[in-house]
Design a protein that fits this description.
Radius of gyration: 22 Å
Number of strands: 29
Number of helices: 4
Distance between the termini: 50 Å
Strand content: 25-35%
Strand order of the largest sheet: 27-26-23-16-18-22-21-20-14-11-28-29
Helix content: under 10%
């Protein structure tokens, strides 16, 4: 495609899928692998020059290689036989205003060396950057004093990542099938592609939650949503979270069938009933089954209809492929055009079997989580944008040290301490969780 002089493509990152070992992993001979980027017919941006990242699915070979596309939108690699995943990401700007994100991710690419060159296509998809983002997900629980695990204290924190007041009607939260990243994923076809990607929807499993009234969030402010245990859990479990706060929201709707008292004790009296989210139950569980290891969470707005009307219309429901058409396998088809933000969480202890569920138009990457230790996945700070705001002079605090092992915020800015110091934080938003998130030692609500 002809380059557009007013567009600037910046590499944002890549994602990593994993697969089982094969009998050709130990080969040291190198073979040619070509990655060809493609766009939709009406795309108005260039595929050249654009960095493409290639990752292997095992430590036996390369961990990451990068090549820049040529005039034909192709990147070229020499690699040992093995299984790989290729991805590319770009921010498209006009002037100084971020408009779109372009992402592309391949399925699993098998290089056997039986042909001179292996070629794989990566289709670039466009998505818009949302004013409202998922700032943090706490879902894995924490250790009790007796060494056992308490996991009924989950939350999701939203954030207005802009200088304008945000208002949202019909705002919903769901998570993608299957429940866990390491599960047998029946949504992949024989070519290694997610079957729903071509149909431009995301399969929400178990149920969805929605705000019954318009949600208003002031600039650079957050909204805490308790998923399970909307009480002061620290009274019983000191390492847990206190949700007894009148500003917090909670998922609480026993009338719909989410009646498990272990997950849904009566909310703390200081939380007003107007802050109770409502649910539409799709599956058969008695508690919204947000994964304890690796949820793929997304935020969306229904358009032209209410959440209840859309989620109860049988025309919008389908079933997990190759599964019995029963309620336990029922999912809701959420159009990708309705999705505001999504985060793909991988289980840190299942590196060889994690598989993507969110499509590249929503999230082209992933972030790992070690559950049962009070850890969360937390959004990284956009260092440049945050430092450039005049009101932040003298208020930013550096030396962030709450990452887990090699996973940390590369900006070095301690966001929570800076916020308490009066700073406004702009978080990274590239629609790629590999770049946008890190694993945090504890939930920010515990500070």
């Amino acid at each position: 495609m002809k380059k557009k002089p007013h567009l600037f493509l910046l590499l944002l990152g890549a994602m990593l899928l994993t697969a089982c070992k094969t009998d050709y992993e130990e080969s040291t001979e190198l073979f040619d692998l070509t990655i060809a980027l493609t766009t939709q017919a009406d795309a108005d941006y260039s595929l050249e020059p654009l960095p493409v990242e290639l990752r292997s699915t095992g430590s036996y070979t390369v961990t990451a290689l990068t090549d820049t596309t040529d005039a034909k939108g192709m990147a070229h690699f020499k690699v040992p036989a093995g299984v790989y995943v290729a991805s590319a990401s770009a921010t498209i700007k006009t002037g100084t205003n971020k408009l779109l994100i372009a992402h592309g991710t391949s399925g699993q690419i098998i290089v056997r060396g039986e042909e001179a060159t292996t070629t794989a296509n990566v289709r670039m998809a466009l998505s818009r950057v949302s004013q409202l983002v998922i700032k943090e997900i706490y879902n894995g629980g924490t250790m009790k004093d007796d060494g056992k695990v308490f996991q009924a204290d989950k939350c999701i924190i939203l954030y207005n990542n802009s200088p304008q007041t945000a208002q949202f009607d019909n705002l919903c939260i769901g998570f993608c099938s299957p429940y866990n990243s390491q599960a047998n994923n029946k949504w992949y076809d024989k070519s290694g592609q997610l079957t729903y990607e071509a149909e431009n929807y995301i399969p929400a499993i178990d149920g969805i939650w929605y705000f019954p009234n318009t949600l208003t969030i002031e600039p650079y402010q957050q909204v805490v949503i308790n998923c399970h245990g909307a009480i002061d859990n620290t009274l019983t479990y000191p390492n847990s979270v206190n949700y007894a706060n009148p500003d917090y929201y909670c998922m609480y709707d026993p009338e719909v069938g989410y009646t498990n008292a272990s997950y849904y004790p009566t909310p703390a009296s200081v939380i007003p009933p107007s802050h109770y989210l409502k649910a539409v139950k799709i599956g058969v569980s008695n508690a919204w089954a947000l994964s304890l290891t690796s949820p793929a969470v997304f935020l969306f707005q229904t358009q032209g209809t209410t959440p209840t009307a859309y989620a109860t219309d049988v025309n919008n429901l389908t079933y997990i492929p190759s599964s019995a058409q029963t309620d336990i396998n029922k999912v809701l088809k959420v159009p990708c055009d309705w999705v505001l933000d999504g985060v793909e969480v991988f289980a840190a202890s299942y590196k060889s079997t994690n598989m993507k569920r969110l499509t590249p138009v929503i999230d082209a990457g992933s972030v790992e989580l070690t559950n049962q230790h009070g850890h969360t996945v937390y959004r990284n700070v956009d260092k440049t944008s945050t430092e450039q705001m005049p009101e932040n002079e003298g208020k930013l605090v550096y030396g962030y040290a709450l990452g887990v092992d090699a996973s940390t915020d590369p900006s070095g800015i301690d966001a929570e301490t800076s916020i308490k110091n009066g700073a406004h934080i702009v978080y990274m938003d590239t629609n790629n969780s590999t770049n946008d998130f890190h694993e945090r030692q504890k939930c920010s609500l515990r500070n």
